[in-house]
TrEMBL record:
<protein>
    <recommendedName>
        <fullName>Riboflavin biosynthesis protein PYRD, chloroplastic</fullName>
        <ecNumber>1.1.1.193</ecNumber>
        <ecNumber>3.5.4.26</ecNumber>
    </recommendedName>
</protein>
<keyword id="KW-0686">Riboflavin biosynthesis</keyword>
<comment type="pathway">
    <text>Cofactor biosynthesis; riboflavin biosynthesis; 5-amino-6-(D-ribitylamino)uracil from GTP: step 2/4.</text>
</comment>
<comment type="function">
    <text>Monofunctional pyrimidine deaminase involved in the riboflavin biosynthesis pathway. Also has a reductase domain that lacks catalytically essential substrate-binding residues.</text>
</comment>
<dbReference type="GO" id="GO:0008703">
    <property type="term" value="F:5-amino-6-(5-phosphoribosylamino)uracil reductase activity"/>
</dbReference>
<keyword id="KW-0479">Metal-binding</keyword>
<keyword id="KW-0378">Hydrolase</keyword>
<feature type="domain" description="CMP/dCMP-type deaminase">
    <location>
        <begin position="12"/>
        <end position="134"/>
    </location>
</feature>
<dbReference type="GO" id="GO:0009231">
    <property type="term" value="P:riboflavin biosynthetic process"/>
</dbReference>
<comment type="pathway">
    <text>Cofactor biosynthesis; riboflavin biosynthesis; 5-amino-6-(D-ribitylamino)uracil from GTP: step 3/4.</text>
</comment>
<dbReference type="GO" id="GO:0008270">
    <property type="term" value="F:zinc ion binding"/>
</dbReference>
<keyword id="KW-0862">Zinc</keyword>
<keyword id="KW-0511">Multifunctional enzyme</keyword>
<dbReference type="GO" id="GO:0008835">
    <property type="term" value="F:diaminohydroxyphosphoribosylaminopyrimidine deaminase activity"/>
</dbReference>
Length: 359
């Protein structure tokens, strides 16, 4: 059980152990929603004597697993937790009581819990019990870990990321970079982080879903926008029930019957709009949504306008591809289409991204 690090907490620094909490919390990426990802380590004489993370909503919290792992060694030890220990009876009992009962001497907290039911009462309960508590260690890292959870807690709305790929000449592209789309790679991992992904046609994302055979794989809900029926080829639903799909369409296209025959849920809106899609996600308890501009991007035009006008996006992820001439757009319209560049490198300078590549 005892894993060696430095000689003492002072030597390693509180930050070291909170970073470890974040690292183990991420083992449950994609699985904890609507709960946050949380990691906990129990440290005695500089050594980690117990570790745990929250695996899934409904299951015990990180602190419970870490205390179990530490056993009797938890007495007089320091507990590090990436999120303030809860102090309420939810699906599970309060972690504050578990820490008090285990007789830990000190608790180091990455960030306080934005959940109004917790909101610093975890910290005060521990202090009232005579336990020393420090908060705000590696706070930025802890906040980034749960950016979607925090946003959802504070606003009651899903966290929305807008993602797209650009050619070097600045046009939207359907493509993903070779390394980005490697099986199980960056794009698969990105999909894993979101509760839902919005795309404009089928198979754009499903083929990148981590295979459900891979340990820890989770498929986001796939939301397909069907504004123009031409772009939509209904797939036969696989018997892999873990990849769910919903089609959002507007009144003009009638694919409901065909879709329902294939077992795909459809929602028909008077007018295609992002607010309605997000409301649907919210009602289903989905906390994070990625809008991926691939496929028939014209289908996204209104949604994008609405998203920007109403501030519905929280995050943007842009990939610049090593490709020149993805479109006919002026002033580069005479450029050879879809020309692949070599050795494209990028670096940031301040907040600008500088690209260099070769014909
Ligand atoms: C912790 N440690 O590992 C997590 C916490 O329904 P429950 O019992 O799972 O409670 C969910 C709430 O508990 C969640 O909204 C958040 O405020 C907190 N999550 N707290 O001490 C954990 N996952
Ligand atoms: Zn808890």
């Amino acid at each position: 059980n005892v894993r060696c690090t430095g000689e003492s907490i002072e030597e390693n620094g509180n930050e070291f152990y909170i970073r470890r909490c974040v690292e183990i919390a991420r083992k449950a990426v994609g699985h904890t929603s609507p709960n946050p990802m949380v990691g906990c380590v129990i440290v005695k004489d500089g050594k980690i004597v117990g570790e745990g993370f929250h695996p899934k909503a409904g299951q015990p919290h990180a602190e419970v697993f870490a205390l179990r792992d530490a056993g009797d060694l938890a007495a007089n030890a320091t507990a590090f937790v990436s999120l303030e220990p809860c102090n309420h009876y939810g699906r599970t009992p309060p972690c504050t009581e578990a820490l008090i009962k285990a007789k830990v001497k000190k608790v180091v907290v990455g960030m306080v819990d934005p959940n109004p039911i917790v909101a610093s009462t975890g910290v005060s309960r521990l202090r009232d019990a005579g336990i020393e508590v420090i908060t705000g260690v590696e706070e930025e890292l802890c906040r980034k870990l749960n950016e979607a959870y925090i946003h959802q807690m504070l606003t009651g709305k899903p966290f929305v990321t807008l993602r797209y790929s650009l050619s070097v000449d600045g046009d939207l592209s359907d493509q993903l970079g070779a390394e980005v789309m490697e099986s199980g790679g960056y794009y698969s991992q990105l999909l894993q982080e979101y509760d839902a992904v919005v795309v404009s046609s089928f198979s754009l994302s499903t083929k990148y879903f981590l295979s459900s055979k891979e340990p820890g794989a989770k498929q986001p809900l796939q939301i397909v926008l069907a504004k123009s029926s031409g772009s939509l080829q209904l797939p036969t639903v696989s018997n892999d029930t873990s990849s769910r799909t919903i089609i959002f369409s507007n009144k003009e296209i009638t694919l409901e019957l065909e879709a329902s025959q294939k077992g795909i849920e459809t929602v028909v809106l008077d007018r295609m709009n992002l607010a309605a899609i997000l409301e649907h996600c919210k009602r289903q308890g989905l906390c994070s949504v990625m809008l991926d501009l691939r496929g028939t991007t014209a289908d996204f035009a209104e949604i994008l306008q609405e998203g920007f006008e109403q501030n519905l996006f929280q995050k943007i992820i842009v990939e610049v591809l090593p490709i020149l001439g993805a479109s006919n757009k002026d002033p580069l319209k005479y450029m050879q289409q879809n020309r692949r560049l070599r050795n494209l490198t990028s670096r940031t300078l301040g907040e600008s991204i500088l690209l260099e590549g070769y014909f």
